[in-house]
Design a protein that fits this description.
The protein is α/β, with parallel strands linked by helices and 459 residues long. It has 3 domains: 260 residues, 3-Layer(aba) Sandwich (Rossmann fold); 90 residues, Up-down Bundle (Four Helix Bundle (Hemerythrin (Met), subunit A)), CATH 1.20.120; 48 residues. It is 45% helix and 15% strand. Helix 4 packs across helix 6. The protein is elongated. It binds one RNA strand of 74 nucleotides through helix 5, helix 7, strand 12, helix 10 and helix 12.
RNA sequence: GGCCGAGUGGCAGAGUGGUGAUGCAGCGGACUGCAAAUCCGUGUACGUCGGUUCAAUUCCGGCCUCGGCCUCCA
């Protein structure tokens, strides 16, 4: 069994082989922190979290970096609009991002580099590019000279002639080539800036990732990930800069890109306004349900986000947790995730297939008759869930408190249940049913089981 | 216009050259005082037109529709 990953660069699923036997390096483009992350922004975080979990089952040392871009024109605009200092904006939203992602079960990255903490490295990288003839200065800017890198366009599959033909109209006059892009640009006094050999200025969009990758992970990393829309120009430019600064060493072996979330089939984007923030979703659904909804489609496929998708994910988890609740008195046999689960994820992170495998395990668990069987299957369900970042809560916790903003009074429910039990004992089923209806009206479902009456929140 | 991706049963969503995805919903049954949960059973599904093949949802080509990136226009 080996891990196969779809590589945007080769446009095929390839067997993943680490570049070095002693470690695996992964870098994912993180947020630009100028406002709340929307659920589409959460998709790569969750997807690559699963990838890292899978890698860690095989490799002792996985170094996972996810950056925070804290210098950007949108941040400057947000600061200006709110009258706050830039650092207040970036710190606030970086903190919110971290807690939102944690709520989705996304483990903190091993390294979380900030662009503004790497200005010297960025400047050094740009100097190397100038020295090697891949970049030049013009009117206070430093630009990367695209014709100096023959392989430019390979990642995004773009024909350079077409790009130039299209770019001809509004190309900045100081560019040597229309496709050239900015590495460093001058800052006015009211904008963030750092002293540099080219005057006070700030980095261009793509260079910070190249610098941070080189600083923390090395010249060539194993896996570079991000959203589909980063392929061009962001990753194409990163790839070019890094290769040219490092004597042609490729930036990454595997390039992975997740597909988009849509709302009514249209790309979710802040400019269109058709967004729902993770922050808001967390007030009305458990993070685990949001996570499972994001994993319900294969990561490269589009996923049309809706309340229904979320509700279905919640219900699926209810079913899993109900099964675990049935065997809460049985100690799970510790084990690794079943082979079928691993095989599903090994196939380019096929999480829907993995979901089917969990469903099969849960069905087997529900049908198990001996304690030994139950212990074994419970262990397998828990191990499978761990790999996907789900099912690690106490089942009773999930079933009775899963929705954050419900205000069900557990004491009141218990009291009503006791009254109903008394009515049933007295064979007063009419009264028992009346009480059950009363409980149902509170959004609570009850079950009479061999070992007593249980309740949970309705889906 | 260039490039990329997608069109699967009521819904979500995998996958495959010839047998079952899976989940939700529905229907029937078992269980239950009745339910719920669970289990069992249950569905002429693969945009369209051609081609290759003994056999295509799966391969090839055309077309249609939708989405994305870039670009153009405004």
């Amino acid at each position: 069994m080996s891990l196969n990953l779809y590589n945007t660069l080769t446009r095929s699923k390839d067997v993943f082989t680490p570049l070095r036997p002693d470690r695996v390096t992964v870098y994912v483009c993180g947020p630009t922190v100028y406002n709340h992350a929307h659920i589409g922004n959460a998709r790569p975080a969750v997807v690559f979290d699963v990838l890292v979990r899978l890698l860690r089952t095989r490799h002792d040392r996985v170094i996972f970096a996810r950056n925070v871009t804290d210098v950007d024109d949108k941040i400057n605009a947000a600061a200006k609009a709110t009258g706050q200092p830039i650092s207040a904006i970036t710190e606030k939203y970086a903190t919110i991002y971290r807690s939102d992602m944690a709520a989705l079960g996304v483990a903190a990255p091993d390294v979380e580099p900030h662009a503004t903490a790497h200005i010297p490295q960025i400047i050094a990288l740009i100097e190397r590019l100038i020295a090697s003839g891949h970049a030049y200065t013009a009117e206070g800017h430093v630009l990367f000279n695209v014709p100096a890198f023959a392989a430019y366009g390979k990642l995004s599959g773009r024909d350079r002639d077409d790009m130039i033909a299209g770019a001809r109209v509004d190309v900045a006059p100081y560019k040597k080539d229309p496709a050239d892009f900015v590495l460093w640009k001058p800052s006015t006094d009211d904008l963030p800036g750092w002293p540099s050999p080219w005057g006070r200025g700030r980095p261009g969009w793509h260079i910070e990732c190249s610098a941070m990758i080189a600083t923390h992970l090395g010249e060539t990393i194993d896996i570079h990930g991000g959203g589909n829309d980063l392929i061009f120009p962001h990753h194409e430019n990163e790839l070019a800069q890094s290769a040219c600064a490092h004597h042609g060493a490729p930036l990454a072996g595997v390039w992975m890109h997740n597909g988009f979330l849509t709302m009514d089939k249209e790309k979710m984007s802040k400019s269109l306004g058709n967004i729902v923030t993770v922050h808001e979703l967390l007030t009305r659904a458990p993070g685990e349900a949001i996570r499972w909804a994001l994993l319900s489609a294969h990561y490269r496929q589009p996923l049309d986000w809706s309340d229904d998708v979320l509700a279905q994910a919640k219900r699926t988890l209810d079913r899993f947790y109900l099964a675990l609740d049935q065997v809460k008195g049985i100690t799970a046999t510790p084990t690794n995730a079943p082979n079928a689960m691993i095989a599903a994820l090994d196939d380019d992170l096929n999480t829907p297939k993995a979901a089917a495998e969990i469903a099969a395990l849960v069905k087997a668990l529900n049908g198990a008759t001996t304690d030994a069987e139950k212990a074994r299957l419970k262990g397998e369900v828990l191990a499978a869930g761990k790999l996907l970042g789900i099912l690690q809560q106490e089942p009773s916790q999930w079933l009775t408190a899963a929705a954050p903003d419900t205000n069900v009074d557990a004491g009141e429910i218990e009291r009503l249940i006791a009254a109903r039990i008394a009515a049933r004992k007295a064979k007063d089923f009419k009264e028992a049913d009346r009480i059950r209806d009363q409980i149902a009206a509170m959004g609570v479902v009850i079950e009479d089981r061999a070992d007593g009456t249980r309740w949970r929140l309705a889906s």
